[in-house]
Amino acid sequence: MRIKILIRLKSQILEPQGKVIEQSLNNLGFKEFLNIRQGKLIELDLPDNLSKEEKDQKIDSACKKLLVNDIIEEYEVLG
Amino acid sequence: MSFKSAVITFPGSNCDRDALCYLQDLTKGVVYNIWHEEASLPQVDLVILPGGFSFGDYLRSGAMASKSKIINDVIKHANNDRYLLGICNGFQILTEIGLLEGALIQNKNLKFLGKNCFIKKKFKNNFNLSIKEDQVLQIPVAHNEGNFYCDNETLKSLKNNEQIAFEYCKGEFSNSEENINGSIEAIAGITNKKKNILGMMPHPERAYSDFHPSQDGKLIIESLIS
């Protein structure tokens, strides 16, 4: 199964790239595009025969050990 | 007994050679250069995690290096109350390992900062003993993610335990800034609670020789060996 993990900076952390993207979009006429924040998406394959619990446990463990720094980031598994 | 030290090299480290020369010239003792895939460290007084872009800064600066094979021994070294110094990328690696609190995020102005900056000591520890109160040091920085962040509770504990070693300040250049990268309370370097581990964004190994514009970086090694 294909897994997608969305990682983003916590809302209280300044995300300057989003601010610059927002400025550029506004300059291009997309004036209603506000509060832009940029994150990252990690996609990976896991075997189909894993139970939901095993899958959740493996993803959670990988996020805690390497993929996410919980001081500044949060994550969610998409779909 | 002579002072022994080691510098760890990761793929993408680019200040390891500077750090080796810095230690060789100032400690006059044995200096080992250790590749990150080694399983063990020799017994040394000080280990430096050098600056650079370990593993291309993939995922987050320092994230991959913090899981390297040698890190288990680096943690043991620190747990034995020996000195551990992380400079720039080394500081990022120390926060990723969890040996130092907080995290280093992108500079507030989005710019890579490569220039001389000014710092002064905040709280006394073994790394800054030779530095006088209010003495302003000129030491270069070269980083994109040097903006120190921690939550309010951690900040309070860093202050209560006197763990803030250095803070940015204004210096002799008229365009020098008080806080170059947006760090909380202009923090440039912190220690752990026991104060045997220091992480700092400025590069003391680029400010010690006669051919450097400043020799203020000497004071850190002098503090440790005095």
Description:
The complex is a heterodimer of chains A (79) and B (226). Chain A is built from 2 helices and 3 strands; from the N terminus they run βαβαβ. Chain A has helices spanning 16-27, 52-67; strands at 2-9, 40-45, 73-78. Chain B has 226 residues and is α/β, with parallel strands linked by helices. Chain B has a single domain (5-225), classed as Rossmann fold, CATH 3.40.50. Chain B is built from 5 helices and 11 strands; from the N terminus they run βαββαβαββββαβββα. In chain B, the strands form 2 sheets. Chain B has a 9-stranded mixed β-sheet with strand order 2-1-3-4-11-10-9-6-7, sandwiched between helices. The longest helix of chain B is centred in the N-terminal third of the chain and has 12 residues, at 16-27. Classes of the chains: A alpha+beta (79), B alpha/beta (226). The A-B interface holds A 9, 13-14, 16-17, 20, 65-67, 69, 71-72 and B 59-60, 63, 67, 95-96, 102-103, 105-110, 147, 149-151, 182.
Number of domains of chain A: 1
By DSSP, the count of extended strands of chain A is 3
Instruction: Tell me the CATH superfamily of chain A.
Output: Phosphoribosylformylglycinamidine synthase subunit PurS
CATH-level-4 superfamily name of chain B: Class I glutamine amidotransferase (GATase) domain
Examine the coordinates and then state which fold CATH places here, giving the name of the CATH topology of chain B: Rossmann fold
